[in-house]
Structure formats: C-alpha cells, structure tokens
What we know:
By secondary structure, this protein is of the alpha+beta class. Helices cover 48% and strands 14% of the residues.
Amino acid sequence: MILELRNDLAAFRAAARDWLAQAVPRMWRAQLAGADSDAAVGLQRNWIRKLHSVGLAIPHWPSIVGGGDLGLAHQIIIAEENARADAPPLPAYVVSLNHVPATLLAWGTPEQKRRYLPTVAEGAIWCQGFSEPNAGSDLAALRTRAVRDGDHYVVTGQKIWSSQSMHADYCILLTRTSSEGKKQAGITYFVLAMHAPGVEVRPIRQSNGRAEFGELFLHDVRIPVADRVGGENEGWAVAQSTLAAERGVLAFEGAERYRYLLEAFHARAVAEGAAWLRDDAMRREFMELFAELQATRRMIRKLLREADHNDAHGQRGFSMTPSIVKVVNTMLKKRVGAFLVRCAGAAGQLDLGGDQVPEMNPMLEYITTFGLVIAAGTNEIQRNLIAERGLGLPRS
Length: 396
C-alpha cells in the first residue's frame, strides 16, 4: 500500500510515517539495555523482515530481486521517517544492504542474483572477508589461498575485522588464486556460506567490552565454482564495486538519528535541571557541537546529490565529499562522546553498562567513537584520498 503511493511523495511520506508510528517496537531501547549481541541481532532480523512486509527493507533495489524500484527521493523520505520514529537501526546489515547489492548487481550471474539478493530482506546477515592480519590498508597483499579442485575451490587462510561475522549467514570473500604478475592480478572473489565445514569465527573483544568484529579461520573450506563472483583472477576489479558501495543514505539516516538524540539529551537536561546547564562554557560547547552536527547534515545532503548525478557517459568522477564526510562526522562524534562523559560526571565514567545501544550510555558511547575513525577506511587514508586525488598534492 505504501509503495503504491510512489508517484505522490507527500502521500508516500504520510503513509510511511503512519505505518512506522504503529509498527516500531515499543521500548526497544529498554529491551536492549543489558542484552547480549544475539538479542540485538534478533531484534534487527525481526525489524528488517517487518520492513520488508510493506516494501521498505530494500525499496530502491530492482524488483526482479525483491526490491521496489524506488528512487533517491523515496530513500531520503524513508530514512527521515525512520529517524523521526526512532525505529531500530540496522548496524548488523551494513554489508548486506550496501556492499552485497553493489557487488552482485554489477558482477553476479543471474542465478547468484536470484539466489542471494532476496535473502537480505528475509533476514540474512552478510559479512565481509577482505582484511587480513598483514593485509589491511594494503588489501592487495592478502594471502588467503583458493585452489581449484574440479567444481569447487579449496580455501585456506585467515581474515580479520569482519563485522557481525559471528552472526553472518554469508560472506563476500577475497582470495588469492595466482601469484603471477601484480598482486592485484591474482585475486578471486567468492560468496562463502558461513556454515560451511571448515569455517571458524572467533569474536574480537573491543575496548568497550563488546564483540562486533570477528576473526575468520578457513580450514580447507570448499566453495562451489558457481559461487565465484566474476572470473578467476578478476576479483580486484569486482572488489572495487564493493569498496565503492554508496553509503550516503546510511550516513544521512545516521546523522538524522544523531540530531534527534542530541535534542532529546538537551530536553532531558532541561527537564532535570542538569548541572552542566549552569556552566556557560559547557552550554556554549553544546551549541557549538550541535551547530557542527547541523553543518554535517547539510554536507551529507550534498553527498546524496552528488551520488544521484552522473556525467553524460553515466559515470561519476572522483569526489572528496565522501571522505570529508567520514572524517568530519567521526571526529564530531568523538567530541560529542567526550562532552557527554563530562556531563555525566564521575559516576558516569565508571558505568560502562551492557547496553547494545551506545547512545544510552555516555562512557560506552565515548569509547565506541574511537573505533569509528578506523572503520570503513581509516581517517588517515581518507585524508590521503582528499590530498592526493582531490587536491592533487604530491605524495611525500
């Protein structure tokens, strides 16, 4: 019923808002206070399935793989209304909703698209098997080996920093199939079933006490040739589609959610007569942070406009905006986290809690923000991209 209103954006927004008002689980944040990661992922699985029941889980994907063929304007409306309704976010589905379609829609066989893409809206979680202990920023140095054996490849190796891998059903995996020529030339891309024999996942405990990343150990894992994405030794080209996956709408929704969280934080402080409101310097600092958040929201809207614009050949040139947004947004969140901890006082600094939603806990939020500057391409790498590709500066 909501998708039937696609040609009337105002009616589409109203219908989405009305549905969310009824569908968002009541007290979902309180349910996750003290919950373990299994409960958090279970809530997300249920929510994405509920979204799919009305066409809002993968609305912009092609209808042939279960999507709704909607455009950017509809995505923005859905993101805005999700944030307004405080619907459960879907951090476990970042790879599923971004990297998987960007890769399989461009490189997958008809059978791979038919088999794998619809699984996302049905609740399947995907992880990414790219980085290795000695091949992080230098991805082409990976050593996980895949050897052809009839209708299968036998894969042995190790991957690290794989988000949500302990909960994942599938993995997009890079392996080495040749050592000839350039490092990039001998890489092959696969879809890996995470429950295949020989796949071992060890959670990596983080400084905030949580374990959102895993280390993958692959012991003679057999992957069917039918699950190879692209040709043998073409994996580097395939991986560029994965790495270029547009996450503008994800960043947009995150910034909208953060705006509402800061507004709610201020409203609670006023209602409770919080001590920091009587400090001129802290009031000024809060307003500076909030103003920077508003500026970041405008920058992300610029990112969305760029993402929706191609040249006459249907191509998109290099833009510094994604890297700038990543650096600015993550550094802002670090400063907000530090501010929240100071507002909470000594008691707040001692309480890490067990919340699955960091924003509910100032100290947990603060510690979590340190990982943001590393994830999705470190801020140092983003600054190099800005300097070298954006500004044309020489390498030192």
